[in-house]
Each structure stands twice: as structure tokens, then as C-alpha cells.
Design a protein that fits this description.
Bound molecules: adenosine-5'-diphosphate, zinc ion
Oligomer: single chain
Distance between the termini: 12 Å
Order of helices and strands: EHEHHHEHEHEEEHHEH
Structural class: alpha/beta
Number of strands: 8
Helix content: 40-55%
Shape: globular
Length: 217
């Protein structure tokens, strides 16, 4: 699938879950600035050192840092491979930079898919979220458990991890950041007629089916 799409929605909306499914089904590439930043923190790079405290508070890392990360990752795509932007752009400035980054590479944004969710569900989703420590597949204590308890469906791994920022306090800050800085970028894309909305409260499978219909259109 050679289309580029943005998945937009508050923390816990299901962006990462759906991005992983598109990767598995269509060989697209997930570009998650959150994952890139967590990798930088783990590796102890200068970007990681600068980002760690900001992420622990649930605030946004600087536009310069994330835009540089996205540019590098786009350059690593295979020819004809579509990108799924997950957690980026998050501010109007990032949206503007993304336009330039894509234009420089003769790419166009096909769809901005907004996952609409009830905020009350997000704390529960985020506080129950964990991932496979080996392959990164996402799970949830209640909504997406491994088929064999303690064993990753995808890679057979037995180690799982939780994010330090997935606690109720930080989640509230992240939601406030989303409302104040990220939701306001939707009108930019609405004016271009590329926004599609999906009911993010539906079952994971139903959300995937709705997204599939949009990217096939
Ligand atoms: P985001 O990337 O938007 O922050 P995730 O995809 O990581 O969100 O989802 C947050 C948590 O909620 C994960 O544990 C995931 O398994 C679970 N989840 C995702 N989509 C749904 C859904 N439609 N219904 C119930 N739980 C979901
Ligand atoms: P979630 O999946 O819960 O929406 P992410 O993994 O996307 O969260 O982001 C985790 C943290 O990383 C954010 O709270 C923020 O500190 C930082 N971050 C991720 N992407 C961006 C971005 N595009 N701009 C600024 N900060 C970001
Ligand atoms: Zn795994």
C-alpha cells in the first residue's frame, strides 16, 4: 500500500494498535515519534537525554526534535512503501513541517484518520496497556490478551513491559496537551477534505475494518 496516512487521536485512542495491523496487512511502515523517542531515551542519545523528563511529565517534546526524527525515518522507507504517522504531527508547527518534509520527497498525504473516543475510556485503556519486550506488539490487560497467557502471539516472547508514563497523573496531562495543541490541527486537514472519522470505541477488529475501507477509497 503506497499511501501515506496520519492516525490522529488522544493517548490511548488505538493509534499504535491500528498502525501495527496496517503494517502486518499491507507492509506499510509505522512512524511513531513516541517509539522513536523511547528508543532514544533507552540508547541514551542526546535527543533521549533532552526528551526523558518532558516525556515523564506527559508534556510535548520540541517540534525540532520530532521533525528531525521523522525526516530520517521517511528516508529509510522502501520505494513505494506507505507511511502511517502515529503520534505525529501533534502541533500546528509540526503539521506545517510535515507538509514540507513530504513535499521535499514528492509524497502526498492521502488521509487523516481521526479515532474518536470517549475520554473516560482512555485512562482505563492506558493504565492496562503493555507491550511485548521482544517485538513491541501491543496488548491490554482486559481488551487484548495474548492467546496463550504469558506468551506473545507474534513472536513467542515471554517478557512484557509497561511504559513509565502510562499512569493516571501523566495521562491527564497528555490529554490536556492533546486538547490544547493537537486537536486544533484538524481544521487544517479538514480544509483540504482529507479527514475521515472512525468510531474508536468499537472493538479493535471493527476499527481496523473501518480504517481499511478508508485507505482503499
Ligand atoms: P495509542 O497508540 O493511541 O496511545 P494504543 O493503540 O496503544 O493507543 O491503545 C491503548 C490500549 O488500549 C492498548 O492496551 C490497546 O490494546 C487497547 N486498545 C486499542 N484499541 C482498542 C479498542 N478499540 N478497544 C479496546 N481496547 C483497545
Ligand atoms: P500515546 O501513544 O500515549 O499517544 P506517544 O507514545 O505517542 O503516546 O508519546 C509519548 C510521549 O512522547 C508524549 O507524551 C510526548 O512527551 C512525546 N512525543 C511523542 N510524539 C511527539 C510529538 N510528535 N511531539 C512532541 N512530543 C511527542
Ligand atoms: Zn512479541
Amino acid at each position: 500500500m503506497d499511501v501515506d496516512v496520519i492516525l490522529l487521536g488522544p493517548p490511548g485512542a488505538g493509534k499504535g494498535t491500528q498502525a501495527q495491523r496496517l503494517v502486518d496487512a499491507h507492509g506499510m511502515r509505522q512512524l511513531s515519534t513516541g517509539d522513536m523517542l523511547r528508543a532514544a531515551v533507552k540508547a541514551g542519545t542526546p535527543v533521549g537525554v533532552a526528551a526523558k523528563a518532558v516525556m515523564d511529565r506527559g508534556e510535548l517534546v520540541s517540534d525540532e526534535i520530532v521533525s528531525a526524527l521523522i525526516g530520517e525515518e521517511l528516508d529509510a522507507l522502501a520505494p513505494g512503501q506507505g507511511a502511517i504517522f502515529d503520534g505525529y504531527p501533534r502541533t500546528a508547527a509540526q503539521a506545517e513541517t510535515l507538509d514540507r518534509i513530504l513535499a521535499d520527497r514528492q509524497r502526498t498525504l492521502a488521509h487523516v484518520i481521526e479515532l474518536e473516543v470517549n475520554e473516560d475510556a482512555l485512562v482505563e485503556r492506558i493504565c492496562g496497556r503493555y507491550t511485548c519486550a521482544t517485538c513491541g506488539k501491543g496488548y491490554h490487560d482486559k481488551y487484548e490478551q495474548p492467546k496463550v497467557p504469558g506468551t506473545c502471539d507474534k513472536c513467542g516472547g515471554h517478557e512484557f513491559k509497561r511504559r513509565p508514563d502510562d499512569n493516571e497523573d501523566t495521562v491527564r496531562t497528555r490529554m490536556t496537551e492533546y486538547r490544547a495543541k493537537t486537536a486544533p490541527i484538524l481544521p487544517i486537514y479538514e480544509a483540504r477534505g482529507i479527514v475521515a472519522r472512525v468510531d474508536g470505541m468499537a472493538d479493535i477488529e471493527h476499527v481496523t475494518a473501518a480504517i481499511e475501507r478508508i485507505i482503499a477509497s
